[in-house]
Design brief:
29% of the residues lie in helices and 31% in strands. It is an alpha+beta fold. The chain has a single domain, classed as Electron Transport, Fmn-binding Protein, Chain A (Pnp Oxidase, Chain A), CATH 2.30.110.10.
Length: 207
């Protein structure tokens, strides 16, 4: 059964802090929807020669700085970010008929933050971070499975450390847009744009 339609958006309900509003919508997506991955978002980057690329990543939420996510620095998205350190995130929660788009510059998180996140990953995921040459050609799945087994043997009896080529990025938002579906395509859209003094300019957009 689908949830009851949500009330129309208005500016006062959204408030003046898009990161706080995002976190509220994010928690509602996790608690009210039946989505398997409510923390999934499309990360959009640009290649060194100007081609856009998107893929789904898991974003565990936001903090006052922005949106952290983690990956292999040698992956396609890692190379894109190093070449053009700007990106976008798009969250879509079909069960709630909501979407959020975020745009901003990207920077690496500190090694300490990356270490802390890596320690909380499942053991298999930690081994995979060492074994997978992410985004590079692979001769066969058997090759990958063998690498995982070799990595497990290498770290047998010890904690698997974070690979130096794996870690976190932080997207610092300069623009955040909230979208909620409306009947007859009269959707509600609000855009927040960062101003020059650390605040946000909020405006309603046409659907």
């Amino acid at each position: 059964m689908s949830p009851a339609p949500l009330p129309h958006l208005d500016g006062e309900r959204l408030g003046h802090d898009p990161l706080a509003t995002f976190q509220r919508w994010f928690e509602e997506a996790r608690s009210l929807s039946a989505l398997r991955y409510p923390d999934a978002a499309c990360l959009s980057t640009v290649t060194a020669d100007g081609w856009p690329r998107g893929r789904i990543v898991l974003v565990k939420g936001a903090d006052p700085r922005g949106f952290p996510f983690f990956t292999n620095y040698r992956s396609a998205k890692g190379h894109d970010i190093e070449a053009t350190p700007r990106a976008g995130l798009t969250f879509y929660w079909d069960d709630l008929a909501r979407q959020i788009r975020v745009t901003g510059p990207v920077e690496r998180l500190s090694p300490e933050e990356s270490d802390a996140y890596f320690r909380d990953r499942p053991a298999g995921s930690r081994l995979g971070a060492w074994a997978s040459e992410q985004s590079q050609p692979l001769d066969s799945r058997e090759v990958l499975v063998r690498r995982v087994a070799e990595t497990a043997e290498r770290f047998r009896g010890s904690e698997v450390p974070r690979p130096p080529h794996w870690g976190g990025y932080l997207l610092r938002p300069i623009e955040v847009e909230f979208w909620q579906e409306g009947s007859d395509r009269l959707h509600d859209r609000f855009r927040f744009r960062a101003d020059r003094v650390g605040g946000w300019i909020r405006e309603r957009l046409n659907p």
